[in-house]
Amino acid sequence: MAFINQDDNGCLSPAAGVSERFQRIFSAAAGLLRESRFLLHAVGKSRRFLLVHFRKEYVRRQLSGRSGGCRQCGTCCNLLFTCPMLTTHRTCLAYGTCRPEACKVFPIDRRDIDEVATCGGRCGYTFDRDPPSPGN
Length: 136
Fold this sequence. Notes:
Elements: E1 4-6, E2 12-14, H1 18-35, H2 37-54, H3 56-64, E3 67-68, H4 101-104, H5 110-118, E4 125-126
Antiparallel strand pairs: 1-2, 3-4
Helix pairs in contact: 2-5
């Protein structure tokens, strides 16, 4: 069975049935990911790191659509692992000096708020409107 077909215009497309199989596999993998908080938080941390360093325009647009404020609960400081800068009084030792960029802009988008919710937290920020498109 071929995995790639070529249509009348010469464009490549998945053979019939293949994309459905990939969709089922992807859905199953996504289900496993939802069940694993460790994997969820590892992906979230990696995603935020990459966004703040390589997708700065995306971050800027997302932050322009963010409203609310930090509740100072420290939940975001405990995603995947407890941040070594978090004190026993739940304050940040690096807050005014050398806080990482991903911490400064957290939450970047709705996915981050959902990640906080998986830990039982409630983020004080919301993304209640679409960010402006790049041309605006």
